[in-house]
Amino acid sequence: MIIIRIQDQIDIIIRDIISPFFKEKNFKKVGRNYFKLYDDFGFTFNIQSSQFNTKDSVRFTFNIGIFIPSAYRLNRGEDPPKRPKTIDCLNPLRIGFLKGIGDNWYEINEMTDISIIKQEIEQDLLSYVFPFYNKFNSVDNIIDISIESLKSGERIFHEMQLCTILISQGKRGKGEQLFIEYYNKRKKTKHSIENLVNYADKLHININTQK
């Protein structure tokens, strides 16, 4: 009888459940990262293990990202990677965000029914991850949905990140307007002001002329 180590169960789940889903959707795989690129945007997915894993118990979660090369170039000041990871996206999201339940980790220990974990992951991919990706079909579409998400409080991108996307896409007027509106709401908060000023400088937005 072959005894499978708890640590190896993640690799088995990746091989049997996760990778087949992403392969079917034409995602590329590098390690525990998956990506799919279109002309001016793309999607990323990452499997993150907990730093507190032991030989008796492992936990892992999923990170999901929308990658926009022009925004990456503006934000980082360098050419975008050909194989983007979720950490390369402006605002990586966790699976718990998509599920609306806060942070969500899958756990495997000696008491775990692996078949139940596999079913949960399969259901999460089908019900949350791919429906999220399917919302988006262009950068303009990403921008429109993201602006609506600010109004609803969902915040796919926060204001400064969305400004970066807008400006990187040649929509400077709209990007600056959004930034100034956010700046005027937060400028009296000492904790925020330094980051806002630094971000304005990076995006070449003159906040000194704003009331």
Structure characterization notes:
The chain is an alpha+beta fold. The protein has two domains: 6-134; 140-209. It is built from eight helices and six strands. Strands 1, 2, 3, 4, 5 and 6 form a six-stranded antiparallel beta sheet that branches. Helix 1 (6-24) packs parallel to helix 4 and helix 5 runs antiparallel to helix 6. The longest helix has 21 residues, at 114-134. The N and C termini lie far apart (73 Å).
In a nutshell, what does this entry contain?
With 211 residues, the chain is an alpha+beta fold.
Give the helices and strands, then pairings.
Elements: H1 6-24, E1 28-30, E2 33-37, E3 42-49, E4 57-67, H2 69-76, E5 93-94, H3 95-99, E6 106-109, H4 114-134, H5 139-152, H6 159-168, H7 172-186, H8 190-202
Helix pairs in contact: 1-4, 2-6, 5-6, 6-7
